[in-house]
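User: Hi! I'm working on a homework problem where we have to compare a predicted structure to a textbook description. Could you give me the structure for the chain below?
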Amino acid sequence: MDAMYDAAITPATPRALATEAVHAGREDLAALGLHAVPLDLSTTYPSYDARAEAARIDEFATTGAQPEGPPIYARLDNPTTARFETALARLEGTQSAVAFASGMAALTAVLLVRASMGLRHVVAVRPLYGCSDHLLTAGLLGTEVTWTDAAGIGDAIRPDTGLVMVETPANPTLAEVDIRAVAHACGSVPLLVDSTFATPVLQRPVEHGAQIVLHSATKYLGGHGDVLAGVVACDEEFAGKLRQVRFATGGVLHPLAGYLLLRGLSTLPVRMRAASTSAAELARRLSVDPRIARVHYPEIGGAMVAFEVYGDPHDVIAAVRLITPAVSLGSVDTLIQHPASISHRIVDEGDRRSAGVSDRLLRMSVGLEDVEDLWRDLTEALSARPGRRAAGNGVRERHSAGR
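Assistant: Happy to help. Predicted structure tokens:
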């Protein structure tokens, strides 16, 4: 999808988020004689003008801008994926968005761009998703991280700080930070907000001063547990650098995933609001349940609930029947997992606990089932005797994988 196309389909007047979710990235379909979005699976595209191709490739190498005209090669651009990027940028209120093969590929690209400018230092607030924490802490990309709380961000910034990173609501405690206050503390250093749990339905970080918004699109943006993807929403200048990294490293999003994500966006507002209503009700019931020590639920709402049990959390995981014990989140069905065993296992135990990720914490991604059915399954699991397992729900410990 080239720049000329994007300019032509940008609406003249602002539209509601629910309308954008349905129509963004699709405005040209009627003129093409189509209703459903076309899926372009080509890896390469014919061209009989090598000089023109050379000029377009030179332009991309210089600016990272999407080449005008027909696509050249799938690692550089894909029309179906570009439609998703256009739609997501409009939902987040940014100039551009760049999609990747996973959320971690997206974060890696951001870090590589900043490191290429000699800005390898990152200031970050825990908790983050376990693999994000690990990527920063392990220095796998040559980055150095200073961990702090939101109040300490300003003091932690150095001349070589290239990025401040927060996740709000945070994985898995659902802790929230004041994005506007954090953005002010960052000064000229870009603020990256991982907004995976919130989605554009609940918050748009750029409206509060963030420059970069990260999503594990595998979660709510896809919404059905059948696509792996990541996306960064940002201004066009930074997007150009991200495209260059994506082209060089190969972390491209498959066009089928782009197709599924665009379809997922069309129902995102409806899914988020329905799941959030059930999640809020479950959080309310859990908060007065004598078997529960503490409930975590964000002030902005959402479909995620975390709670700490007095009993053994592994017994709860083993006993659910309707709810699926699995990593990840944001699907139409309800999932539950034990962060200390799975999503945050790779984080040092002391760092986990200091960030509020206790060994008794369970994290639940509420889906679209009837809330009474979910509560019945959950309350029976909370009362289950040790060793009681639902058929096929064997539990095994593993390192961090999905969120």
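For your comparison, note the following. DSSP finds 14 helices and twelve strands in the chain. Confidence is low (pLDDT under 50) at residues 1-5, 390-399. Good luck with the assignment!
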